[in-house]
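Handoff note, outgoing to incoming analyst
You'll be picking up this chain. Sequence as last confirmed:
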Amino acid sequence: MAIEPDLDAPELFFNRELSWLEFNDRVLREGLSPDVPLMERLKFLAIASSNLDEFFMVRVAGLKQQLAAGRTARDPSGLTPAEQLERISRRAHAMVAEQAAGIREALARLAARGLRVLGPAEWTAEQRSYLRSYFASAVLPVLTPLAVEELQPFPILPGLGLNLLLGLAPADSADAAWKLAVVPVPASLPRFIPVPAAEGLNQAVLEDVMVEFIGQLFPGFAVKAATVFRLTRDADVPVTDDDAADLLQLIEEAVRSRRRQGVVRLGLSAHADPRLRDWLKQWCEVGDDDVYEVDGLLDAAGLYEIVSRPGFEALREPDWPPQAPRDLLGADDLWQAVADHDVLLFHPYESFQPVVRLIELAADDPKVIAIKQTLYRVSANSPIVAALARAAEQGKQVTALVELKARFDEARNVNWARRLEDAGCHVLYGVAGLKTHAKLLLIIRREEHGIRRYVHAGTGNYNDRTARVYSDVGLLTADRDFAADASAFFNLLTGYSQAVGWHKFAISPTESRARFVELIEREAAASTPDQPGLIMAKMNSLEDKALIQALYRASRAGVRVLLNVRGICCLRPGVPGVSENIEVISIVDRYLEHARVFYFRNGGHEEVYLSSADWMGRNLDKRLETVFPITAAALRARLVGALETYFSDNVKARRLQPDGSWAPVRRRGKPVRAQQKLYEEAVEAARAADQAPLQFRPMTRPAETQS
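Most recent structure output, in case you need it:
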C-alpha cells in the first residue's frame, strides 16, 4: 500500500515572493531576446523595471514590516521573513545587473538603426555647447537645491523620483569639508533631450546633463562629487476601513503618507563616490543589501519615452487592430443581439468598444431606467465614467462602486468618485474590510413586454486603454438567472441583504474556494484509467494552499492537470507520487495575459467557468469576486479551443520545472504562437462574416418579459 504523502510538506510549495521574481525574469527574458523586435525589447525592459519597483514598494516592504515586528513564522515553503529577504536581495541584485546590461546592449543596437542615446563621453563639442545652453535656459530655472545638514532631517523626497546628491566645496578652498546638497530631477522635463547631429536622432539623458552642468546652480562652489540616486519607499500603507467615517479622506491621507514612508531600496549610479554612498545609506537607514548600483539608466521605466516615439516601425511588432466580436458580427441592434443570445468577448483580439458602446447607449436610451457597475481600475479619461455621469444627469438611477483601495490607482479613483457624485450617481466606496474586485455591469431596461436586465461580467477591468493590451474575456447576457445573480450581488454591496442562494454565481469570500475545490474533487472522483479526468486552468497567479493541495490530490487520482499561470505559481509540478500529472506553463508575449478561465471535463459533460479571481488567498478571502459558468455550448467550445491553443504554444511558452526554474517549451513540429493564432482566428471570423451572403431575417415577436 502506497504511503500517503504529507501535502503540508514545505518542499511541495514554492515561495510566493521568489516565484514572483521568476515571473519578472520571464518578462526580462523577452527584453533580452534577439527574436523580439528592438522597440518591443525596450518595452519589456521598462516593464520589468516598473514591476520590480512595485514589488519592493509592496512585497519587500511588507516583509520588512514583519521583520521589524520580530515575526519568525515560516511560510508554506518553510522560509522565515528574514530568509525570504536574503534570497530576494540576491535574486533581485542579479536581475538588476542583467537588466542594465540588456538595456546597454539594446541601446547600442538602436544606435546602429539611427536612434542614439549619448553619454557625456560621446558628446561632440557642438553638442556639449548646445546642452550647456539648454541647461541654462530650460533646466536651471526649474531646479530646487536642497541643503543637507548632517544633524538635520534628510529632505522629504518622493519615491521613485530621480535626484542628484552633490558634494560641494568652496571654490577658493579645495581642502574644505564638503557641504552636501540634493537636487531633484524635475519630472516635468523630458527625460531624453534631442541634440544636434549630422544624421539620425541623437539624445542626451536629462540627469547626465544635470550632473555635467550642475555647477551653474552653485556659484562660488566646486562640485567635488555627484551621483544620481533614487529611493523606493514603502507603499504598503494599511487602510483600516471597518470604522472609517470618511473612507475618501482616509484614502487621500494614506496616499499622501507614502511620501514619508521608510526607504526599502536605494538605487545609485554605478561607481558613486563612497562618501556619498555612505551618507545616503545612513540617511535612508538601509543596509548594503538594500543598495542597488546601476551601470546605466537608474530609472529604466523612462525607456517608455523612447518606445513611444513615432517612427521606427520596422523595430516594432506589426499592428494587430482589434476585430469586431464574432458574436456581434452583423448585429445592428446591440440590445437585440444580447437578448437573442449570449455574447463572448475575447479582448484585445476582439474590440472592447461594444462594452463602452453598451454603457453609452444605456446613458442615452430613454428605455434604460437604471445602471449599476463596479469600477476597479479605469483609464485617465474614461468614456465609461463619462457615460455614467451623463446617465445620472439625465435622471437615470446610477449606482457605481468605485473601489478606492485599488493599489496605486487610489488618487485617480478618488477623483472619479467625486466626479460621479457631483453628477448625481449613488457612489459606494467598497465594502468594509474587503476589496471589490468583481467586474460586473447591470443595465435595467423597460421594454415593450416588461423589464429586461442586461449584464456584462468579465475577467478584466472597465478600462478602455488597458483593454488594448490585456488579454481578458467578458460575457454579455440577458439570461434571467444570471441577471438575478447580478442584481443580488449589487444588493449585497448597497444594503444589508444576504444572498440566500445563487443561480449561477459563486462569490468570494464566501463560496469561491469551496466551489473550485468541489469541482476539482468531482473531477478526481470521476477519473478512471480508461477515462482520466482533465482540468485546464488559466490564471494570473496560483498561491492558495487549499487549492494547490486539491490539485495534488487530483493528480494522484490520475487527473491530468494543465495550468497556464502568468505570474506567481507556488505549486511544484512533477513530484513523483504527488504532482507528476500536473503541467504548468506561462506565456509572456505582446499582450498581458489576464483572463481567468477554468475547464473541467466532468466525464464528458464539460464545464467552463470565468472568474475575476485568481487562485490566491487574497482573492478568495479578502475580496468580493465572482465565479460564473459559460452555459452556451458554442461559447464554451471557443474557450476550450483557446485553452488548447495556449497549451500548444511552443514559441512564447515556458514550462515550470520541479526545481522552480522555467524552461522554454521544446519546439516540435510547426511553431505555434498562441496570441498570434488567437488574433488570426479573430481576423478570419471577421473576414468570413464580411463575405457571408446577405440573409433576409423576418421580424418575430420579441422574447417574453424577463424580470
